[in-house]
Amino acid sequence: MDQRALVDVVCKSGLENLAGEIGALLGQDLTCSDIQLNLTSKEDLFSDLGRENSALTRMAVSGERDGHCYLLARLSSAAVLGGTLIMLPEDMIEEHAQNGKLDGELSDAFGEIANIIAGVFTQAFVDKYPKSVRFIKKTVEDLVPTKIDIDSDEPFAPGHYYVASCTMSVGDRDLGPLEFVVPAAVFELEEIPTESAEEKTSPSEPEHSEEPPPSAATPAVEAGAEAREEPTSETTNAAAPVPAKPAFADAKKLIDVVFNSTIAQASEEVGALLGQTLK
C-alpha cells in the first residue's frame, strides 16, 4: 500500500468514528457524511469567497514528525455543538449560532469537543499507522476567511496540506463541513507538482533558434543596427509583467460577501434596538 492510500485509510477511519464519539459526548445523534480526502494548497482551501466565518482549532502534532495541524468548522456550528454540550436552552443556542459568536464558556465547550476529535484521530493512527503520530488540541479562535492573506503565515503558512473532511449534522440540523487540515509533510506525502518539465519546454520547439547568416551590410546600416540594439535592456524592463489585478468577477464576489454580511448584521442590530424582528 502506498503512503497516500495508507493515510486515506487511517483518516477515513477517524472520520467514521467521530459521529459515535461526539454523539455520545453530546447525548445526540450526530452523523458525519460526504467524507472527502484531498491534497490541496492554502490558496485552494480558501478560494471560496462564500466560506462562512469559522472556528479554527490549532493542534500540535508529535511523534515521528513534529508540527502543527488545524481543525476548521463553521462558527455557527461550533456554537451549536458547544451550547449542546453545556446544555444551554435551545433559544440561547440559536441566538449564539445566529450571532456567530464563540466566547467564554461556549469557546471552552467547543474546545472540549475539538479535544475529543484530536483523540479520535490519534487513536486511528495508533491502530492503523506504522509510525507514531499524535494530535494535541491547543487553542480555539475565530477566523474570518475573507480577511486571510494567502501569502502570510496566518492562520497557517502557504504550502500543501492534506485535508480530511466530512459534513456534520445533528438530527435534521446541517452543521456543514468539518475539516482536519494537516501539512502534507507530516504524512510524508509528496507536494503537489506545480509545473512539469514538459510544460516548461515544448519538445517540438528548439531551445535556441538558429541565427540567419550575417549579410554584407554597409557600415552605416551596421551602425543603425547597433543603435537599435542598445536599448534592449530598457525595452525588456519596460515589458516586465505587471502583477495581475483580481478578475472583476472575483472582486465582485468578495464585495458581495462583505455587503451581505453587513446588511444581515444591520438587521439584527436595528431589530434588537426596536425589540422587533427586522428583515
Contiguous helical run count:
9
Query: What does the main sheet amount to?
Result: 6 strands, antiparallel
Low-confidence stretches: 193-240
Radius of gyration using CA atoms only: 27 Å
Order of helices and strands, N to C? HEHEEHHHEEEHHHH
Oligomer: single chain
In which order are the strands of the major sheet placed? 1-5-6-3-2-4
Share of helical residues: 40-55%
Shape: globular
Structural class: alpha+beta
Distance between the termini: 55 Å
**What's the β-strand tally?**
6
Residue fraction in strands: 15-25%
Mean pLDDT: 81
Outline the structure in words.
By secondary structure, the chain is of the alpha+beta class. It contains 9 helices and 6 strands; from the N terminus they run αβαββαααβββαααα. The chain has helices at residues 3-26, 42-45, 75-85, 90-99, 104-128, 197-200, 219-229, 232-238, 248-274, and strands at 30-41, 54-63, 67-74, 133-143, 160-170, 173-183. A 6-stranded antiparallel beta sheet has the order 1-5-6-3-2-4. A hairpin with a 3-residue loop joins β2 and β3. The longest helix is centred in the C-terminal third of the chain and has 27 residues, at 248-274. The radius of gyration is 27 Å and the shape is globular. It starts with a helix and ends in a 5-residue tail after the last helix.
